[in-house]
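Q: For a teaching handout, I want to show students what a protein-ligand complex looks like in token form. Below are the inputs, and the small molecule is magnesium ion. Please produce the holo structure.
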Amino acid sequence: MRCARPSICVVSPRTTDTVNQGIVSLERLPVTTLKGVGPRLADKLAKLGLHSVQDLLFHLPSRYLDRTRVTPLGALQPNTSAVIEGEIRTCDITYGRRRSLVCRLQDGTGTVTLRFFHFSAAQKDGLVVGTRLRCFGEARRGASGLEFYHPEYESLDEQAPQPLEARLTPVYPATEGLTQPRLRTLAAQAVACLDHHPLAELLPETLRRQLHQVPLVDALRYLHAPPRNAQVDQLMAGEHPYQQRLAYEELLAHHLSLLLLRRQTQVEQAPQLSPDNKLEQRFLQQLPFQLTGAQQRVSAEIATDLAKRTPMLRLLQGDVGSGKTLVAALAALAAVGRGFQVAIMAPTEILAEQHRTNFGAWLEPLGIELGWLTGRLSAGRRRAELERLASGEAQVVVGTHALFQNEVVFANVGLIIIDEQHRFGVHQRLSLRQKGAQNGVCPHQLIMTATPIPRTLSMSAYADLDTSIIDELPPGRTPVTTVVISQDRRGQVVERVREACAQGRQTYWVCTLIEESETLTAQAAEATAQSLQEALPGLNIGLVHGRLKGKEKEAAMVAFKEGAIDLLVATTVIEVGVDVPNASLMIIENPERLGLAQLHQLRGRVGRGAQASHCVLLYGSPLSRQGRERLRVMRESNDGFVIAEEDLRLRGPGEVLGTRQTGDMQFKIADLLRDADLLLQVQQGAQLLLREHPIQCQHIVQRWLGENRRYLQV
Ligand code: ADP
Ligand code: MG
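A: Here is the structure, written as tokens, with magnesium ion included.
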């Protein structure tokens, strides 16, 4: 096969010597230059993001069919596709649950059934007993052993049998109206174009040799049509060296895009915020405890960044309860000490309130003015707060997303702190930064995650940030003991709550989200509170859920904190931040509905005081195998980093990172879990390229991220 319209397949006039032997415009060659591609087909291809011949080349098979060999019937495995050959022994219409044509096929090694639910009389007449057939399809376990439903078949000419396929048959990611045969011919045409137009090899020779990598073109040719002796298992798992070669380049492209983004921000000016030692001393003296070693180390890392002229971009990771807030407060102090404002943004109202309380208690005694901005303020209060921000009277402002609405104007914000709970992707991070920029001065940015992020994910999703890790809990914490109990034993659990509260231990009872509906969940929480009140008449029971007014929620939280409430029934709104050291028992209903990170975050609400704490995971049976596995992880580990890794393994990067970031992390070929061991090489390769081949970097990003790299443009 050749390029359909060779006249168009010419070397680009834009050829530069920066890219190996001359850039060829396969990326500029629209799919419509291929045979049989008109505007309608081009539209369908565009749905898959395929615009150019090069896009087709990089649209790789998601799996393969092996039609290169005949599998003896006796060696067939269920749920795999295979070519089989055999003689028809019987062929009858049966009337079981559904009328079907059933054909028994036999070879020297075994027997299988071919089953057709739709068939014509002519078809039945063609399947004569004694005829030899060759079929292709997927073997499934059926009523009579292994069965093939509607296989492809042809009768076999013993004298001159059709040759089998010489290569594995690719199966491409498809979309409606695009058939596999169509995609296969297009891919074959695209591969044929490589004969005339070598595709630019973007990885420098040194790097390729170091990584023992095959040339890109060889990998592409091979993967679109692997030979019959290829390692099928390896290919199906995405672990073939040629696939890994491409996965490496794709991961590299993503990594580079983040590093380039970061580089862009580093040409911006930031205020130099060297620490105000006096202020810091006064702050530390009023604390009832000493900083942990980890808090000191991390604070020093942040202080170094803040004192630079370029904007800090730092991710602060630490397990639940490791004391991130205090580190953030120290950073805030540096900004305030130099006359700059600080904006602290929390993902929820409750957490924002909590921060306001904490920061208020720490900073107001030092004479620092706090501001407060959420979506729920009255118009008058809001106007007043906005004025205090614009005038610079409010030095540290705490709030929710409302902080970054257009009408919010700061006098001079020098530091933005985001308690983000995995909610922001690269684009959001960038736009927050731009909002804070004024008169060419860009604020520093500190991002705190609510729970640790698995290393593989932070290496890729957060490559544009520096990372600080608090790897030590404050002293005197007793680890939470977790037990897993079925709803069938709810009565015993209620009894346990009674005993705990009788001993003066406060308890959380958490109701989990029902079908993404806050209303239903709130109703369930109300019902639970009521039934618990009936079962435990002696206790003061409070209720917090997302449908309550801010005031009501706050009142319940304050009452719980002051000990006026024994048992707090809540939805997962209390997930983050809430800090009541005397609470030492938590019941989580239907924990199987939540992700591990979220469970860990919830559980982190207890175990904050000196008392031994307990967490009861009250699951609804029956549990799925994965559900059981996840609860086991919770029972066995209290370490947020371990739990994050398990969460990644069990649920995949999309779930762990959250929707916003998943968009940033969509790969064509790479798989963060499978290819985790490539990441270190990717990091090193990216550094080398940035240093020595800066122009190549742009090309690599363009090739793999194409349109998605909008955020790279200044
Ligand atoms: P997280 O990292 O989960 O945000 P917080 O900042 O809310 O943790 O801190 C959890 C609790 O630990 C708070 O009550 C805080 O006052 C307390 N704390 C923080 N640092 C220390 C420390 N060095 N020693 C003792 N307690 C601390
Ligand atoms: Mg916190």
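A: Two things your students might notice: DSSP finds 24 helices and 21 strands in the chain. The chain has four domains: 69-155, 248-266+670-713, 277-470, 480-637.
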